[in-house]
Amino acid sequence: METKLKPIDTRIWRKKPLAAYEADMKKSELKRVLTRWSLTSLGIGAVIGGGVFVLTGIAANEWAGPALALAFVMAGVACAFAALCYAEFASILPVEGSAYAYSYGTVGEIFAWLIGWNLILEYMMGATTVAVSWSGYFEKLLHLVGINPPIWLMNDPITAQEKAEKLRAAGEIIPDFAFAVNLPAFLIVWCVTYVLVKGIKEAASTNNAIVILKVATVIFVIIAGSFYVDVANWTPFIPAPVIDAGGQQHYGFNGIVTAAGIVFFAYIGFDAVSTQAGEAINPKKDVPFAIIASLIICTVLYILVSLVLTGMVKYDSLDLKAPVAQAFADIPGLTWAVYLITIAAIAGLTSVMLVMMLGQTRIFLGMAKDGLLPKNLFASIHPTFKTPWKSTILVGAIVSTVSALTPIDKVSELCSSGTLLAFAMICGAVWLLRVREPNLERPYRTPALPVVATLGICANLYLMYNLRTDTKISFVIWCTLGVIVYFLYSRRHSHLNNPEDHQ
I need a labelling partner for 209 at 20 to 30 A (CA). Which of 83, 232, 247, 479 fits? Predict the structure, then answer.
């Protein structure tokens, strides 16, 4: 008797069965070594970095003034709604893949692909931005100890030429150079790549040590800086609106909202906790805890630092590249703190890079396991280290090359746009799953879900709407490219096309 084949579901809205996630967890080759506090530390490691040491100066100086604290509150609240939804999903589906995996099981394949595609933008470009920022702080440290490396060795070709022209205009003699590369950015990415290939336990241990250092430094900044706060610098707390030549409003309420979109990049990372679910010892309980705990801790620290910083220095005098270090450098008798802050910034940005690149490879791993990316490259696990070593090396190669040769300007907003959309979709997806699968076991349940999900969707899309026009255009181009890749490769190679072969 002839066997009747089950018709294949070729719809772009098809969903991955929840039973398939359980099968993936059983077949996982990753080591489960991460505890509750290791996961929380990974979240803090990703969140505290660029937000404190870089973005505070830009957001306060150009957009929000002393009301930068309100911008951090606004961004933190938008993240909190998403974090609560992430926590419920993480307790149901404790697998690598984060928002991509959650959407695949609830909303459908095309939405999951778009979220995964945007998470690539978030993590890969985020790591690139941080690598360039790391290089800037490293150069500052070298200058502090009297070492002045040549411009062409510390900057990408375009930035190097711009710096040389400014210095020549100021009367300095700068020799011509035909080649320039941001060597520190290139090398630090490969150092991080080595740690990630070596193993998750080593990566987590490295991150834990760095987190202790930078959290201690942030607390030092808050306590020591509070003694030098001049309340006059907080007046007016919300500066009067100013319209620039391009029609963009600075300061006022709209300026605060724009600043919230900028500093939102600083919060990118708490969701990286969910990408490590495949390596957590007790993911159903510990991942939700780590997501919420890391976000709360970092939000409180961000608000306090922003208040101290704008109290120490008038907002329009804040340094754009190294605001925290510069604030202490201007205080007699505290110049020694500049060394501490600079070293902590270097360490802090290293851990941000580590977690972002770690999260990126786990997103690739989740997508490859579903057939949406080539499995032999993105899902290849090292037999000894038990890490996705091929994709880790690929990510290292891309991030190191781009950070060494490309000037990164305002890319944080582009990273934020992908994350904001992913967060909004997760809020909707967890609500949809409650309706479709009301009896599903949920070790963690988001409180007042209809309210939280609605506010999460609205808050994240509102921040996304208020990003700069050219950022939104770039984001549309990136999404269009993703749709093309999906229809040319991923849709045809999806395991849902031939489920019998991937039981």
Answer: 83
